[in-house]
Write a structure and sequence with these properties.
The chain is of the alpha/beta class. It is built from 13 helices and 15 strands. The longest helix is centred in the C-terminal third of the chain and has 16 residues.
Length: 337
């Protein structure tokens, strides 16, 4: 079968290759999934560069998320029930950018037939991140303010729609002026342009004060880190909480300890895999049902900007990192039979 592999860490377009490898066999406790589609997420690209939370053993196949059809099982009643079903595949080890994947049954989730293939392929990583951040961890009350950076990202757009749906306000920071109107058209009321690499911090502070007056936000989320997250720390209100859910900027945080001491604020790291593993089976089922409902309502909708077959992997990862792209890049692996 065909699979995308990399034998060394580096720039995705340079190190990724389409290879012919032996088809895997489902062992006890596993199912064999014929993959249909998988998105190119920022976490995948970090993984290929060797900058993700855990480095894989090489050679490795990327792809943390995707959708496919269960072809066979390594045994057990649950495997038998899954056979022939479309499932979401949450893969932390072997990777989903392959025609077939053998994976533990606990990492596949049957998906509603009411969802499209695109919705199923992008079902979990971004929607679950957005939902868990604002509803499980921060639990933002109605009419309260959430400050978020990278608001034009897939997660950022979902957070805006979640705010409109659940009744909290979003203060949305983007890095480019051309992103402002797009976010406002989709329902964002307050969009601020600030690029920490070029703009003085005062620009961010003044824009936020124009909107909030003397009020400081109590809730904030950031996937960038570096100087952007450091600037946010200085704006937090009394006993505020900042959640870091990414590290797109490889630079360290840089702020004085008294910035947190002053307001009793806190900074917390978020890793989706760890959050999901901590959930009970009942809580996981409930989460899947909620995500399905919100995806169908358009609240957690993922825009698809482009689709590429496996043999165009270099073009796919290059497109995924283009500035100003309007949605996810999807790898089309196999069509449903």
């Amino acid at each position: 079968m065909r699979a995308i592999r990399f034998e060394q860490f580096g720039e995705p377009a340079e190190v990724l290759k389409l290879c012919e490898i032996k088809e895997p066999v489902a062992r006890q406790g596993e199912v064999l999934v014929r993959m249909q589609a998988s998105p190119v997420n920022p976490s995948d690209l970090l993984n290929i560069r060797g900058n993700y939370a855990k480095r894989p053993d090489l050679p490795a196949t990327p792809g943390f998320e995707g959708v496919g059809i269960v072809e066979s099982s390594g045994g057990g009643w649950r495997g038998a029930l899954l056979k022939g079903r479309r499932v979401i595949v949450l893969n932390r080890h072997t990777g989903n950018w392959a025609e077939k994947v053998a994976i533990s049954k606990q990492f596949v989730i049957p998906v509603s037939s009411k969802l499209t293939l695109d919705e199923s392929a992008t079902f979990f990583v971004n929607p679950a991140t957005a939902y868990i951040l604002v509803r499980h961890i921060l639990r933002i009350p109605k009419n309260q303010w959430l400050l978020q950076t990278a608001a034009a990202s897939a997660v950022g757009k979902m957070v805006i729609r979640l705010g409109n749906y659940y009744g909290f306000h979003t203060l949305n920071v983007v890095r480019r002026h051309d992103q402002v109107q797009h976010l406002k058209k989709m329902g964002a009321r307050h969009v601020i342009v600030f690029n920490a690499k070029h703009d003085n911090e005062r620009i961010l502070i003044d824009q936020i004060r124009k909107i909030l007056g003397n009020t400081r936000p109590q809730y904030a989320i950031d996937p960038i880190g570096g100087q952007t997250a450091s600037s946010i720390v200085k704006l937090l209100g009394e006993r505020a909480k900042l959640i870091l859910y990414g590290s797109l900027d490889n630079a360290p945080l840089d702020f004085l300890a008294r910035e947190l001491i002053r307001n009793g604020g806190s900074i917390e790291g978020f890793w989706l895999a760890r959050q999901v593993e901590a959930l009970s089976l009942t809580a996981k089922i409930r989460l899947v049902l909620i995500l399905t409902k919100l995806i169908r309502k358009g609240v957690l909708h993922s825009e698809i900007a482009a689709r590429f077959p496996l043999d165009q992997i270099s073009q796919a990862v290059t497109e995924a990192e283009k500035t100003g792209k309007k949605g996810k890049v999807l790898l089309s692996i196999q069509q449903e039979r």
